């Protein structure tokens, strides 16, 4: 159906939506619509109101003011995900899977097929296999979700939505844990959905992906609508500027050369641990060493072994000239090696606690006295961290789960820095955060390197690896495929090693 201008009439439309939580306004008279067969990207910094707006559009929040229209008729969307029955499906950023159940059971959870009163597992299995084939996912419907990688779990979430015959599909950071190859497979599926007339809202901080997949783009800032434009009218640079309201030409800081006489702080020889085999590399004082590779290449597994999260079974680690074998996170921390996890919500932060206890948890001995935790010292540390890392919260008593993703990430970085590390390992340091916060983190890491801290950056984002690293180590299938430095560092070279088209030497 066409509207009065000749364009297709919207399937879902938000008109002058405002939302407050108690006396705190979050959204201010937002309007946008979703047309059949289009991808409409919603972008903005963390805290811009994207998640709240998405939940209003999917019925999880009721608007304080404004109207929602479905097929041109004003409607009150049912709460708690029941809008799926109307064809409006939200894929949350946090995975919503039953870990101990199979893929097949997750996809049909709550709407199982039956025949003569008995579960029809054969039909469900065939249907799930068909969906898996559509998205190019090489897993079995009978695989247990807990055994899947993060990327595979995200694709299962997408399969769940596809299986519900969604008319409107709202995706919150769907590619955050996907590799470039997996992302392209996902985009292929998005294009198939578009061809079937599905309306898709795509929320992502990866502006190059927005540019590649979106038909229209709406920008939010601080809960306000800034603009809606066709994707061809915006570049990634103009998107970033609209999001933050300032120029971001200096997203990556200037790279200062590492002192030629800088000693090797960390040296690893033939290390073998679960997920990696025969790894050798060195890390110099004040160096930022990037680790790239496809998801599952062994990057995280290697450094989890280096900080005592996983046991190493062979090899030698030399730290500051002495043999070192980390048997626990506490031993690595006490030696000056800390690891910033890529999973801030599940493994990095206590979401139900206030900020200060999260900040001091890794370095609790600094704040402990004969009567327990010195709350005054803890509060002073929180005040310093708030200033140093620009953590934005209404009060220091704010629960961490109520912070935006960017502020959670800055708190996690502040937490590991309380341990005063000599070696800082950051795993996916900017996953799921906005471009303005990325800039802050990049500049902070560069400043640390200038102060002599040695840094490992593990990242699936190629521009991040290239923009931040003095050298880049590429891993493939648990081994080092090659090491790049200087002008060798490029997307093409990294992908050649990651894909197995080239093979090089140790770092």
The fraction of residues assigned to DSSP E strands is 25-35%
The computed structural class is alpha/beta
- What's the CATH class of the largest domain, please? Alpha Beta
Instruction: Return residue spans where pLDDT drops below 50 for at least 5 consecutive residues.
Output: none
Compute the gyration radius: what is it? 24 Å
How many alpha or pi helices? 16
Q: How many extended strands?
A: 24
Tell me about the largest β-sheet. 6 strands, mixed
CATH architecture of the largest domain: 3-Layer(aba) Sandwich
The shape, in one word, is globular
Helix content: 25-40%
In CATH terms, the superfamily of the largest domain is P-loop containing nucleotide triphosphate hydrolases
CATH topology of the largest domain: Rossmann fold
The side-by-side strand order for the widest beta sheet comes to 6-9-10-3-11-12
* Count of distinct structural domains: 2
Oligomeric category = single chain
Mean pLDDT: 89
Distance between the termini: 60 Å
Please write out the topology.
Blueprint: E1 12-21, E2 24-34, E3 39-43, H1 50-57, E4 65-70, E5 73-74, E6 88-91, H2 103-107, E7 114-115, E8 118-119, H3 121-135, H4 150-163, E9 168-172, H5 180-195, E10 199-203, H6 207-213, E11 216-221, E12 224-230, H7 236-244, E13 264-273, E14 276-284, E15 288-292, H8 299-306, E16 314-319, E17 322-323, H9 329-335, E18 337-340, H10 344-348, H11 355-360, E19 368-369, E20 372-373, H12 375-389, H13 405-417, E21 423-427, H14 435-450, E22 454-458, H15 462-468, E23 471-476, E24 479-485, H16 491-498
Parallel strand pairs: 3-10, 3-11, 6-9, 9-10, 15-22, 15-23, 18-21, 21-22
Antiparallel strand pairs: 1-2, 1-4, 4-5, 7-8, 11-12, 13-14, 13-16, 16-17, 19-20, 23-24
Helix pairs in contact: 3-4, 12-13
């Amino acid at each position: 159906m066409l509207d009065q201008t000749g364009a297709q009439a919207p399937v879902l439309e938000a008109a002058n939506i405002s939302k407050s939580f108690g006396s705190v306004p979050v959204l201010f008279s937002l309007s946008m619509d979703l047309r059949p067969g289009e991808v409409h990207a919603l972008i903005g910094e963390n805290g811009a109101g994207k998640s709240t707006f998405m939940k209003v559009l999917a019925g999880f929040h009721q608007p304080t003011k404004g109207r929602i229209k479905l097929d041109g008729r004003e409607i009150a969307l049912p709460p708690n995900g029941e809008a799926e029955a109307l064809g409006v499906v939200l894929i949350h950023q946090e995975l919503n899977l039953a870990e101990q159940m199979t893929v097949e059971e997750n996809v049909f959870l709550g709407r199982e097929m039956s025949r003569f009163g008995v579960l029809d597992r054969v039909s469900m299995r065939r249907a799930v296999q068909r969906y898996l084939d559509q998205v190019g996912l090489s897993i079995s419907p009978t695989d247990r979700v807990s055994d899947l990688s993060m990327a595979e779990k995200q694709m299962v979430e997408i399969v769940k939505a596809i299986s519900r015959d969604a008319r409107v599909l709202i995706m919150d950071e769907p590619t955050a844990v996907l590799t470039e190859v997996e992302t392209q497979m996902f985009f292929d599926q998005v294009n198939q959905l578009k061809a079937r007339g599905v309306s898709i809202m795509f929320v992502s901080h990866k502006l190059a992906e927005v540019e590649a997949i979106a038909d229209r783009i709406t920008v939010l800032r601080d809960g306000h609508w800034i603009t809606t434009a066709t994707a061809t009218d915006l570049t990634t640079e103009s998107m970033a500027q609209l999001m933050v309201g300032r120029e971001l030409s200096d997203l990556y800081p200037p790279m200062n050369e590492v002192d030629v006489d800088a000693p090797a702080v960390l040296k690893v020889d033939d290390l073998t641990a679960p997920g990696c085999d025969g790894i050798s590399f060195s890390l110099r004082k004040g160096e930022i060493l990037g680790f790239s590779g496809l998801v599952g290449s062994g990057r995280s597994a290697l450094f989890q072994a280096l900080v005592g999260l996983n046991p190493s079974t062979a090899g030698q680690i030399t730290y500051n000239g002495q043999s070192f074998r980390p048997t626990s996170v506490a031993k690595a921390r006490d030696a000056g090696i800390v690891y910033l996890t890529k999973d801030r919500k599940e493994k990095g932060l206590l979401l139900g606690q206030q900020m200060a206890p999260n900040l001091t948890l890794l370095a609790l001995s600094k704040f402990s006295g004969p009567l327990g935790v010195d709350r005054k010292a803890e509060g002073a540390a929180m005040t310093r961290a708030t200033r140093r890392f620009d953590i934005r919260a209404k009060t220091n008593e704010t629960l961490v789960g109520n912070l935006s993703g960017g502020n959670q990430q800055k708190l996690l970085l502040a937490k590991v820095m309380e341990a005063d590390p000599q070696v800082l390992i950051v795993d996916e340091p900017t996953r799921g955060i906005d471009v303005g916060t990325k800039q802050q983190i990049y500049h902070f890491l560069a400043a640390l390197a200038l102060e002599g801290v040695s840094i490992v950056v593990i990242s699936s984002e190629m521009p991040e690896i290239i923009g931040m690293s003095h050298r880049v180590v590429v891993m493939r299938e648990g081994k080092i495929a090659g090491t790049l430095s200087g002008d060798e560092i490029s997307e093409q070279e990294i992908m050649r090693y990651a894909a197995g088209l080239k093979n090089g030497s140790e770092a």
